[in-house]
Amino acid sequence: MTVLALIVAAAVSGLVAPLVIKWYRAQGWIDDPLDRRHPKTTHLAAVPRGGGVVVFLGLLVTSLLFLEFDRSLLHILAGAGLLTVVGWLDDVYDIHPKWRLLAGLAAGLIVVGAGIGIAYVTNPLGPGVIHLDQPRATLELLGETRQIWLLSNLFALLFIVWNMNIINWASGLDGQMPGLVVVAAVFIGILSYRFIDDPTQFNTATFSFMVAGAYLGLLAWNWYPQKMMPGYGGGSLAGYLLAVLAIISGAKVATVFMVLAVPTADAAFTVTRRLLAGKSPLWGDRGHLHHKLLDVWGWSKRQIAVFYWLTAAVMGLLSLGLSTWGKILTVVLAMGLVFAILIASKLKQLKTGSA
């Protein structure tokens, strides 16, 4: 069932993509690097965005075919729908980053409002887990008494929004982000089988493979030379869906950090670098890892995309067998390697006078 769901999701998004491309081109919603000059831009030809629309439609159709709808799934799809609409607005109008951030927070709150939170994390210092179900607040809403797990919900919200941003920042080159998401979603799906008490009525593993399939269909059109770009919609949906899947599949937070170790390290370095320079961490520049590999080290776009996929796959394989401490150590080493590459890139640019 899971493999069939992946195939159908890939087929739907793959078939929807050319229709979205045609629609965007007919309306003139094109990302032309000559009109929209920005240091972070790497594409040379005018290309439509619209990846968020493609992925959302692929997920929606396959959800209707393969999943049993419950409150959790409705909230997940509602949050995804909000991000798709905001992504479309950004494709057309290039909205301010602060509005995109607020949309991400709103999507996260929709999910958390369904009771999807991180109730516990594995204790790295000993056996058992660290519970996050305290403190709690009681709220009267729509005639019902609800309990809000403050720490659990806050952790989940931050985890969702953080992943939305790091995935978006790892979508600068042809094929880079969709392939990364395919790998990550497949590993989350595999690990979901280890979590017996699925908190949802729908099958979490099946949903994970559907996400992988939807991005595989997008990859066919985003691979170099790209015919369309993911845009904010495609990138934010990716981080949102991976984070939510990690939560509902048994709080696989450490696993997601492992699989996304390279973009996580790049994001951490980027935020620190921008803050130290007195710049807003929300505004893009040409200082990401993929920019350095392209500009400083002379890698091709295809090589960089495959590098991101392979590192995610290797980290995912390691996550299947490592203990919590092993995962933490591996993530620290991976982040150290990424930091070293970024620092070496800066020093090389200073030496050659190209910084």
What brief labels describe this structure?
two-stranded antiparallel sheet; mainly alpha; 13 helices; 6 strands; about 350 residues; two-stranded antiparallel ribbon
Question: Can you offer a commentary on this structure?
Answer:
This protein has 355 residues and is mainly alpha-helical. It has one domain. It contains 13 helices and 6 strands. The strands form 3 sheets. Strands 1-2 form a two-stranded antiparallel ribbon. The protein has a two-stranded antiparallel ribbon with strand order 3-4. A hairpin with a 2-residue loop joins β5 (136-141) and β6 (144-149). α4 (97-112) packs parallel to α8 (231-248). The chain is globular, with a radius of gyration of 20 Å. The model has no long low-confidence stretch (mean pLDDT 89).
Helical content, roughly? 55-70%
Secondary structural class: mainly alpha
- Termini separation comes to 51 Å
Fraction of residues in β-strands: 5-15%
- In which order are the strands of the major sheet placed? 1-2
* Low-pLDDT residue spans: none
Q: Give the overall form.
A: globular
Order of helices and strands: HEEHHHEEEEHHHHHHHHH
Mean pLDDT, to the nearest integer, reads 89
Number of strands: 6
Radius of gyration, CA atoms, in whole angstroms: 20 Å
**Tally of helical runs:** 13
The profile of the biggest β sheet is: 2 strands, antiparallel
Total domain units: 1
